[in-house]
Amino acid sequence: MPCVGDWLNSPLSIVQGIFAQNAPNSDWEKKVTEYFKEKLKENNATNWVPSLNDVPVHYLKPNSLVKFRCMVQDMFDPEFYMGVYETVDPNTNARVLHFGKYRDVAECGPQQEIDLNSPQTVTSERQTFYCVPVPGESAWVKEISFLTEPARVSPSTSYTPSRHKRSYEEDEDMDLHPSKQKEQHMACKSCFSGSGGDIHGCVEPKRLETEASAGHHVISPNCSPPLDLNFPLPGEKGPACLVKIYESWESFKVNDVLEVFGVLSVDPVLSIVNSEERDSSSLDPMECMDTMEEQRVHSPPASLVPRIHVILAQKLQHINPLLPACLNEEESKTCEFVSNFMSELSPVRAELLGFLTHALLGDSLAAEYLILHLISTVYGRRDVLPLGKFTVNLSGCPRSSAFTEHLYRLIQQLVPASYHLRMSIESMNHSRFTPHKDYTANRLVSGLLQLASNTSLVIDETQLEQGQLDTAGVHNVTALGNLITWQKVDYDFNYHRMEFPCNINVLITSEGRSLLPSDCQVHLQPQIIPPNMEEYMSSLLTAVLPSVLNKFRIYLSLLRLLDYSISDEVTKAVEEDFVEMRKNNPESVTADDLHKMLLVARFLSLSAGQTTLSRERWLRAKQLEALRKARLQQQQCVNGNEL
Amino acid sequence: MSSPASTPSRRRGKRGRGSNPSTPQDARSPPSQKRRTDDSTSTGDLQPMPTSPPADAQSPGAADALFSSPPQFRHSAIPLDFDISSPLTYGTPSSRVEGTPRSGARGTPVRQRPDLGSVRKARQVDLHSDGLAEDIVATEQSLGQKLVIWGTDVNVASCKEKFQRFLQRFIDPLDKEDEDIGLDLNEPRYMQRLQEINMVGEPFLNVNCDHLRSFDENLYRQLVCYPQEVIPTFDMAANEIFFDRYPDSILEHQIQVRPYNALKTRNMRNLNPEDIDQLITISGMVIRSSQLIPEMQEAFFRCQVCAFTTRVEIDRGRIAEPSVCKNCNTTHSMALIHNRSMFSDKQMIKLQESPEDMPAGQTPHTVALFAHNDLVDKVQPGDRVNVTGIYRAVPIRVNPRVSSVKSVYRTHIDVIHYRKTDSKRLHGVDEETEQKRFTEERVELLKELSKKADIYERLALALAPSIYEHEDIKKGILLQLFGGSRKDFTHTGRGNFRAEINILLCGDPGTSKSQLLQYVYNLVPRGQYTSGKGSSAVGLTAYVMKDPETRQLVLQTGALVLSDNGICCIDEFDKMNESTRSVLHEVMEQQTLSIAKAGIICQLNARTSILAAANPIESQWNPKKTTIENIQLPHTLLSRFDLIFLMLDPRDEAYDRRLARHLVSLYYQSEEKMEEEYMDMAVLRDYIAYARSYVNPRLGEEAGQALIEAYVDMRKIGSGRGMVSAYPRQLESLIRLAEAHAKVRFSDKVETVDVEEAKRLHREALKQSATDPKTGIVDISILTTGMSATARKRKEELAQALRKLIQSKGKAPSLKYQQLLDDLRAQSDIAVTKEMFEEALRALADEDFLTVTGKTVRLL
């Protein structure tokens, strides 16, 4: 009888049950997804499912239900697989029908053979995505999402893997010593990446673990160079995963953030396939059609890159664990949440403004603009023009005192995903910004700019020295420029380029005006120069209560998702205003300026939780812009005098 | 499986499609549907894993005779010596046609077709014996037999007969293909092809499936569904006809039929399990090709004891090594002799979906191709090809010793025919790729649209809706997108006339020029976007590169060549350096690019329209200066632009108001609402593509008259004041614009309306760009000579005044420069600048009146 443990630990047996009931009928597939959808709807059921983001692969049971929050990094070619197949026992001639969905290997008993010619066989199609954890995910996102998780379901010892022998003691001792786990995870992870290229893959997890805790790094002497897991950002950790999608894969795009629930498959056979193939390749010309690199990339060892056979998948609007995952209006729960939060919005805003003012060394105008920047998002595109992007160039940053470094750390505490890009001649020349296609391995090699929507990209231009950019450097700067102006990244497919639209919040910190384009330049006017920047900033952070910090986080993520409109009346007023301003001095206000003012007005209203533009807000937006411009002019004068 | 044919004793047909050709209706429905309804069949498409090599249909002795190597293989063929109804004779309709002597195929060896796989296992089923479907395919009644190949509804004899009929009779006088040079369209097309084979000796017959479809729908369906069986039958048919006609012809091997252009699948993304084992045509780009792989076709074994030899054919990549010598019965005595085994060439190619087929935000799919024999090394990475072949799926065995298999299939395409799509682009317009496929409804919709009276305005509005107003500019760009009609005057010695319209936008920074360019670049399929600052002459044209692998020189094409038949958008045109710009001279008028570099001398086509944007030299447009002075571009280049628009920031209250409203609306309208308001970008794109490929307007009588008048008028305007305000180039521009406007209306004839609009637009552009700031008169010579006629006149006057002044000074041999200038200034009633003065001096020097050395002026 299916109980909680069953659908979590051995979802395939549930599928088998449903399949057996409805066998020849193709309805069973729908019933399976419905069943799991129901199960996951139950209270907090999703929290019961272990997450690959949190738990290392070897602590998870093969063929159990797992969840994974990830970004689609690459899409492989669709696969044809045996949806339904029949095995036959050569002795008794007994035929049994099996399903191939959610599996990598067509299973059959020891005495059985697969009848490939059976008329019952159904060939189906599925799509494989190469997924990586959301790049630049902040530490707090992980902490909060897995803090709330109750103790993991204890694995049932009665479960016996059908094909291969593996001990699962470590699963038990994981539950016994939950506190110890963490270090062990880390140790194991590093060990895994160290022995990344191990093509045999099926190293006993037990052995690995003991060795790892003893502080050894297992690097087998004859292993090929470690497999590049293709994370967009350097220094990322976490499992990459081959996600097999069975339904409506057309709706997913590269760089989408997904949460998938599916069957974990780490069958060592998958890795054996590789070595076997290599031996027999001389014999069978069919096998040599992929290059070594391609094989390595497309069927990496399962211990390193597990497979997930997706039962349910959903696109995520955001990855903030403090917010309900899906913010549609219908659900009363989310409505309640939103309205509750809205009621206490203005104190939160005031507090956040204060916090950021301190962070920006007492400059409240810059803090105001920073809030606007942090809640900006591309909400639409008018043909090529992205609407709603608000790139801020924070000029006048003190260069010496690692100010930007600390500012980034604060921002990291506020947004779910971010990356700090230190611009220097060397980093521009030597890093790869745009993803490009590697045709030998047949995959999309990631670049720094392959980021999920609403990732905060903080570009630190204060580090930039004089020097010569080479071709790669020029390309990288152009790519950054394109990203900022058009919110798109041109991926290099060698023979052609493809545009991928993106939605990345770019904040540029620089001393003078940035060499990159930006929507608005704010010149920082520090009121205080703390003698010890580090102390100052960390004290700032410790001064904020965690609950308040969480409110900031909710504030920034939630306001981004609100709708916005402008009434006819205000439209008229804005029109009048514009005409008036132009009348006095047509040079002073251009269409571009109006664009900016409307943007500021939009985010200003939203930041106060208002979804329509009011006259006051418009005036406030104008005032802010005037202040900002005055500051710039003043700055220019100063510079002019100095020069 | 309900078919009685599946009794265990019978070997399953290799395709195992088990479809039961039970009723005629069923037979007619495509197998895909069949498989859907009849779940019993769907695996069938997979080549079964051989559990044990099946006994061949023929006796071993017979097989031996067949397997003698082709060069020694001589048929003593007597025409028509076979019994058509014998299942044995036709039981194996492969191109190998074991032991089936073809009539007249004297001495021409048969060549294996690895592209079709091992077909010889195909079986025929006598429907009579099956006891069902007595009434199958009526035409076969005449032949008195009902044999079909197992698992299909293909009857070899009738199929062959139909195909022969097709070869002998198919005429399509309207069809036009590039390869058709020298073909008489009113004669049976494929008979001419056979004749060509006889003359050239290339034993391949390419058959357009479209032709076959129009000739015999059912045969076409069979071909697409069962290519593995049908193509060998076609081979037989073609060979029979050929050797009947040309009995003395000597070919390398027998003719192989290569069908192409199967319409079933166009896009790689649409491939699905139903396409397995069917004939498909997909387009894509080659990204990788492997080395040549020698694939063993036939293994040669010799007994080490008695030296008895035998041949074993490869069965799906495996050799069944004979364990017992048939002659001396020794076990394990047979050894493989490599040198006497037969190999065929094979190559693995990766094909990637072409960028146009890719949905936004997804990465391209790839598919593996296997090319065999002649097709090896026919394509290089980077080539765009249309591939026709058979889609295959093979299960992957995890381990030969373990019974479990990976539940995933490996898929590939066995290539039968390649058609390169881009190599031809360098020679002529490739109609095939150019003609996007439109569904009936789409065409209907587009035609409906074209009938609207305001279609021109509508389209112009739909163009870059986020950019406010600038209607005339949008109209100009719209016409550029449509382009004029291509005309060929090669026989009169003038070559091709340019049909492309070039446009230059210049104006204040921040007037969304770049945005307009970006939009156009995104709209057209073959657009290129470059920035003048960032591009070099090489980047625009082409450069020669040494391929690191093959060490051979490769011509890499630049933006201009890549945008052949498209639009090349060049931003910051003014910042382009001189040498780069000079490249454009040739492109913009002759529409070709000549390259002479590192041993490669060639002329590439670059029939590209150029949409350029330039900023004024003083960053702000100076209304007191002419266009040339403002953007500092050579007039030789400027005159090559059909339309030059100024994009200025208008200072006008009403405009401001409208602009503000427009912008505000951008900031709150939801996306859906925006889409409703304007014509969809996709519709616009289709509309343009349709017009470009199907509408080719010619000048009507009236329109011609109107053009003449317009031109004469334009000439007249200036002549009164001694200026020329129009040149033949302007007339050509007018013609192109008028044609483009006719295209917008989907009209085959250029009418007076078109000429009117062309005139208006041209005048509009002229008014903006060629107005003499000093006189306010439109003066084309600003663009053609870089100076307005009045300015030139003034220059002459000044020179004359100077001459008079000098002459009035008497006989002084030399004069002081500064003093002369002062004198001239004192005398003149207009302000004389130093430049003007120097110009006047130069003019006089040219007349040998004086020379200037340093600060003194000497009279001669």
TrEMBL record, chain A:
Residues 152-174 are annotated as: Disordered. One of its GO terms (biological process) is DNA-templated DNA replication. This is Mini-chromosome maintenance complex-binding protein. The gene is Mcmbp. One of its GO terms (molecular function) is chromatin binding. Keywords: Nucleus. Its main location: nucleus. InterPro entries: MCM_complex-bd (IPR019140). Belongs to the MCMBP family. One of its GO terms (cellular component) is nucleus. It is found in: Nucleus.
TrEMBL record, chain B:
One of its GO terms (biological process) is DNA strand elongation involved in DNA replication. The keyword Electron transport does not apply. Its main location: nucleus. One of its GO terms (cellular component) is MCM complex. Residues 1-74, 89-121 are annotated as: Disordered. Residues 19-32 have a biased composition (Polar residues). Keywords: ATP-binding, Cell cycle, DNA replication, DNA-binding, Helicase, Hydrolase, Nucleotide-binding, Nucleus. Its EC number is 3.6.4.12. It is an enzyme of class 3 (hydrolase). Residues 455-663 form the MCM C-terminal AAA(+) ATPase domain. SUPFAM superfamilies: Nucleic acid-binding proteins, P-loop containing nucleoside triphosphate hydrolases. It is found in: Nucleus. GO terms for molecular function: ATP binding; hydrolase activity; single-stranded DNA binding; single-stranded DNA helicase activity. It holds the Pfam family MCM_N. It catalyses: ATP + H2O = ADP + phosphate + H(+). Component of the MCM2-7 complex. Belongs to the MCM family. Acts as component of the MCM2-7 complex (MCM complex) which is the replicative helicase essential for 'once per cell cycle' DNA replication initiation and elongation in eukaryotic cells. The active ATPase sites in the MCM2-7 ring are formed through the interaction surfaces of two neighboring subunits such that a critical structure of a conserved arginine finger motif is provided in trans relative to the ATP-binding site of the Walker A box of the adjacent subunit. The six ATPase active sites, however, are likely to contribute differentially to the complex helicase activity. Acts as a component of the MCM2-7 complex (MCM complex) which is the replicative helicase essential for 'once per cell cycle' DNA replication initiation and elongation in eukaryotic cells. Core component of CDC45-MCM-GINS (CMG) helicase, the molecular machine that unwinds template DNA during replication, and around which the replisome is built. This is DNA replication licensing factor MCM4. The gene is Mcm4.
